[in-house]
Design brief:
alpha/beta, TIM Barrel, 11 helices, binds cytidine-5'-monophosphate
């Protein structure tokens, strides 16, 4: 099995983020560069991680008009990222433009197209949060609606809560990739995540990748934390 752990490098200091990446590299399968790190370190951080042979997940959650998103995706492909995110709530045309741009740009530069992942409902949102933004539906209902739209747009993967994986698998094409944040090895330490599972539970539910941030980077010993998470999913 490929190592399914994506460590979220949610640190504002590029030097510390790269040091963390190098430390935990033997125990993780990919590195997530989100908006906090990218606005501090820029594309150079992607180059550095690629330089140590790391798989890069660029999590900038694009949400804009189709033309702008397509161009941002093209730049991400030229930067050589392997996964990236767009908000499914950006709509069908925006998602289709993102996927088309990923495939076309990859063909142009002679690389494999990155996995364009649709973000459904953030794992920090619950029913009240959805209602506040004028979306008075249950979280599962909204997730299903956005997931179906992502499939229609031609996306090949989604970011979702681990608690949604089993239901989503029923409506998704067989090889669809599911990436799940909201992972907590210890249920007493949830931070702002509201819908969580442990690493092993998430994999057993059908996640292809698990995103782990604070349980690794904020741990007293990040290497040990990453090692333990890996052991927890590889031990039967
Ligand atoms: O620290 P923690 O493990 O909660 O980090 C989760 C990571 O996954 C963060 O980088 C967050 O931005 C990201 N994420 C999320 N929920 C989503 C999509 C991405 O928590 N739906």
């Amino acid at each position: 099995m490929n190592n399914p752990i994506i460590v979220a490098l949610d640190l504002p200091d590029p030097g510390k983020a790269f040091a963390l990446a190098k430390m935990v590299a033997p125990f993780v399968g990919a590195f997530k560069i989100g908006s906090e790190l990218f606005t501090a370190a820029g594309p150079e951080m992607v180059r550095q991680i690629r330089g140590i042979g790391g798989t890069v997940f660029l999590d900038l959650k694009f949400h804009d008009i189709p033309n702008t998103v397509a161009k941002a995706v093209a730049n991400a492909v030229r930067l050589d990222v392997q996964m990236l995110t767009v908000h499914t709530s950006g709509g069908l045309d925006m998602m289709a433009a993102a996927e088309k741009s990923a495939v076309a740009t990859a063909a142009l530069v002679g690389t494999t197209p990155p996995l364009v992942l649709g973000v459904t409902v953030l794992t920090s949102m619950d029913r009240d949060g959805l209602s506040e933004i004028g979306c008075p539906t249950d979280v599962p209902e909204q997730v299903t609606r956005l997931a179906s739209l992502a499939v229609k747009a031609g996306l090949r993967g989604l970011v979702c809560s681990p608690l949604e994986v089993r239901d989503l698998r029923k409506i998704l094409p067989p090889k669809f990739q599911l990436v799940t944040p909201g992972i907590r090895p210890n249920s007493e330490n949830l931070n702002d995540q509201k819908r969580t599972l442990s690493p092993k539970e998430a994999i057993q539910a059908g996640s292809n990748w698990i995103v782990v941030g604070r349980p690794i980077y904020a741990a007293e010993d990040p290497i040990r934390a990453a090692e333990q998470i890996l052991a927890s999913i590889t031990t039967p």
